Amino acid sequence: MESNTVITNGNYELLKNLNSVFLANSREALFQLQSVNVAGGRNTWEAQVAIPANATAGPLFRLDTINLIPRFEAGDARLTNWTGTRTLASGATYYWPAKYKVRNATPVQENTMVLRVAEQFPHPGRSAYPSE
Q1: Using an 8 Å Cβ cutoff, are 17 and 100 in contact?
Q2: Cα distance between residue 96 and residue 35, in whole Å
Q3: What does the pLDDT look like over 41-61, one tens digit per residue?
Q4: Rounded Cα–Cα distance for residues 12 and 119 (Å)
C-alpha cells in the first residue's frame, strides 16, 4: 500500500540511464546517505572497496561467476552497467559490483543508496524467497 503512494508521488522516477541511479540526489533515491568522509575526494565506501585501485589491480570483491553472472538474461542492462570486469595477466577474468562508479572526486558525486523507488515495484510471478 505505501509503495503505491511512493510510486505515484511524482517526486521519484525510474531512471532509464542506469549509470545515473546512484548519483547524489538521484530522482530514483528514496533514502541516500550523504558522504561525509571525503578525505582525498572519497565519495562512497562502496566505491572505495569495490572499484579496483588501479588499471592492473584485481577487484577486492568478486562476483560469483558460477551461480550469479550466468543468471543474467541476454541484454540485461544491469550486467553491463552495474558490474565491472577485468582480465588479469594470469588470464583469469573477474567481475565486481560497479553500481558506484566514482572512487574519488571533489565535489562528491555519489551517495550511498539505502532505498530506491525501483524496490517498491512488485515482481509478478516471483517469490520473495526463490527456491534452490
Answers
A1: no
A2: 22
A3: 788 888 888 888 888 887 888
A4: 12
Q: Rounded CA gap, 72 and 7, in Å? A: 26
Q: Using CA atoms, how far apart are residues 103 and 57, in angstroms rounded to an integer?
A: 14
Angle at 68 between CA 77 and CA 90, to 5 degrees: 95
Phi, psi of 125, rounded to the nearest 5 degrees:
80, 0
Q: pLDDT tens-digit profile of 54-96? A: 888 878 889 999 999 999 999 899 999 999 998 888 888 889 9
pTM for this prediction: 0.78
pLDDT of 132:
36
The pLDDT of residue 115 is 94
Q: Please provide the distance, in angstroms rounded to a whole number, between the alpha carbons at the two ends of the chain.
A: 29
Q: Is 59 helix (H, G, I), strand (E, B) or coil?
A: coil
* Residues 57/63/66/70 CA torsion (nearest 10 deg): -110
Q: Which residues pair with 6 in a beta bridge?
A: none
Check: CB of residue 51 under 8 Å from CB of residue 98.
Answer: yes
